[in-house]
Amino acid sequence: MTARKDEWETRYRKWKKKDKTKESAPKSLAEASVLSRTEKKNEIEKRVDKYYTEKTQVNKKRTRISKIIIAIIPLAMLFFLVYNNFLVSRDFNYLYDIGSEGDKYLTPIARVSEPAEDNGVSYRGLTEALVYFDAPVPLGSESLKIQVKFKDTLQDNWTMRLGARDQEVWHYNYHFIHNPVLNRLSELPKKDNIYLVNSELYFLTLDELKYESDIVVATDTQYAPLPNIVSDYKKEKTLITTSLRGAHIAYIYISGDLDLEVEKQDINWYEGSDELEISIYDLENNLIARTKIPDDGITEVRNKEKAIAQKGFLNASALKEGVYKIEFGNFDGVIREIRINTNKIVFERVFLADSTLYNLETKPSLLYFKTNRNEQIELVTYHKEGIQNISYLKDGKNNLFNFYQEDKPLYLELSRGEYEFKIPKNDIIISGMPYFSFSRESYFEPFKQKVVGIRNDFDWLINNVDYIVTEYNRPEYEGEWIIAETEFNINDEQLFVKDNKLNIVFNVPRLSQEGSQNYTVPIDWIKITVHKPGVFENEILI
Amino acid sequence: MKSLFKEHNAVLVNHLFQTLLVTYLLLLLLEQIWKGVVSTYLNLNYLLIVVIIAGILDVFSEQPKKEKERITKKDYVFIIALGILGFVIIKYKTTALGWLSWLISIIAGILIILLSLLVLEEDDV
Predict the structure, then answer these.
(1) Average pLDDT over residues B15-31
(2) Which of A116, A198, A213, A253 could cross-link to A344 by cystine, CB 3.0-4.6 Å?
């Protein structure tokens, strides 16, 4: 376009030059008239020329301004994004209208009912214990508040928890959103999120509570106890030959390299493959090492046959001296033998399995533990083979406990002291506040205090716990419907956010129990509020 | 064919289209690297619609006569930089594939450089 303009300008100037040559010719009357006309013409041309120059300049100026305005568009967008992502704090609200047309929020779809309506309220019912949904989590978000409107159809002390995924594997951090037992918390004195259960003790802040020794804290939060330093730790081999059924959690005290050897034997009572997964975690719940002992090759039910024993190894190197957690995953079999290169190993709960019931020789098991307070341990068996008389030594004095019933737990009241149990026939699950070891030598207290989950039994809490730490909020009741809420902190609870999504699970244990096939828990809606702090808000908090 | 926009307006439409297109591609790249950084606040599809409309208007506008520009050393440096950038982005996005990620990203980086050179030197051939 500029080239064409230049061409016109050249032609115009040539013509003008030619016209000027004419002007220098002699003048007659006619010529004078022509001259006068020429002068007028020249004047017009000058004006046109001026107008043209001015117009070009204005256009150039206008183009420059317009280009600047256009350049502002991407800059404005960039500023908008920086402002929203980093500078300003925001709350994002999402509403999942369950049961509305085309809703696909809850998965797997086989675990929820078809959409239904109740007095104009559309809903879907949870039909099984674990039902999942995703919550959007924008970059830099700090916390999620989740509200759920559901109906109490189970009419009993049933509980519902919401779990937020906190590991790459299927692992969730749970918060209660419905627990009638916790509704009774209002009976206890409270300061912040700490309820004082043991009236002989006194109120403590969360930081003070962590340093308090020999207490029991029940919690559904990420409250973690501080580890102890063990003075009589030795790096020597420990061999455990007591058979254990299914999943177990052990704590070890170790420094340097870990060598763990495990022998397992499937019992093939149920269909499917039976791999035993063994994982070691540090106290921040970071996975250090994991191994898997494969299935024995029998996936069908063959409970009469004695399966082969298989070995697996787990190694970790350069561990800092301290307490570590070993998780033995659940499987349809027994752990026959554990060899480990530390003299300190205790278990949270034991399922003793040296019994002919599991195609093993019935032989007595020895169990050692200590208590620092009055408390109880729970003993339960699900077979008549497990009914037996259990003898135990308490501070050198012999006692007998008649364990006389199956399917229902029996509780043994304990007072402060050292205990050595001899369980002759096994097939028994023993759990409680103490940690259990299989010899006096391997016993140690991993933590300054015992931290347990909140049980669905208020009387048990009153009798066994000193403090309760919970963020449980009593739900609101709207007729038959209940609105409950909980809040997850993404960083503090180390939640696993992938592709800006956090996987959440409804956990209603009651729905997995026998006789609950016809029950559902109707869900009307889920409201999610995600809070993302801005730079300015963070500065204020600091 | 009659142009919708001429002279000054045509220049502006062309500039608008180029700016919007580069902005869109840049935001798309940011979204690919840090998922949600853009899409949480801005629907890129709306921007794409605006880019397409600006593109259509530009096609039907008076086109300025392009003068042939000389290829300089700067052009080659720019192309190599683009190739390296492409390699880094693809490596970042495919890192889960292990050794295959290296292979894919190296090939992609080389392809970017070769194709850019081909386009750059097209008229000289």
Answers:
(1) 92
(2) A253
In the numeric block, the tokens 């016209």 are attached to A19
Q: Is the dihedral of CA A77, A82, A87, A89 positive or negative?
A: positive
DSSP strand E in A52-208: where? 90-97, 116-118, 121-126, 130-136, 143-151, 160-165, 172-178, 190-191, 194-196
- B40 contacts A62? CB cut-off 8 A: no
Q: Where are the alpha helices (DSSP H) in B2-98?
A: 7-33, 44-59, 73-93
Q: What is the 3-state secondary structure (H, E, C) of B87-116?
A: HHHHHHHCHHHCHHHHHHHHHHHHHHHHHH
Nearest C-alpha of chain B: how many angstroms from A42? 28
Distance of alpha carbon A326 from alpha carbon A279, whole angstroms: 6
Closest CA–CA distance from residue A497 to any residue of chain B (Å): 12
**In this model, does residue A2 exceed pLDDT 60?**
no
Tokens at residue B12, please? 């502006």
SS3 call for A288: strand
Chain B interface mutation, best of A61, A66, A94, highest count of B Cβ atoms under 10 Å: A66
Q: Which helix (H) or strand (E) holds A318?
A: strand A309-328
- ipTM score: 0.79
Q: Where are the domains of chain B?
A: 1-66, 69-125
pLDDT tens digits for range A47-97: 888 888 888 888 788 888 888 888 898 999 999 999 988 888 999 999 999
Report the b/e string of A442-466 with b at 16+ CB within 10 A: bbbbbbbbbbbebebebebbeebbb
Distance (Å, whole) CA A184 – CA A354: 41
Nearest-CB residue to B41 (from A59, A74, A81): A81
By three-state DSSP, how is residue A179 classified?
coil
pLDDT digits (tens, 9 = 90+) for A441-470: 999 999 999 888 888 788 888 888 899 998
Question: Is residue A73 within 8 angstroms of chain B, CB to CB?
Answer: yes
Strand, coil or helix: B60: coil
Strand, helix or coil at A427? coil
Q: A269 near A301, Cβ under 8 Å? A: yes
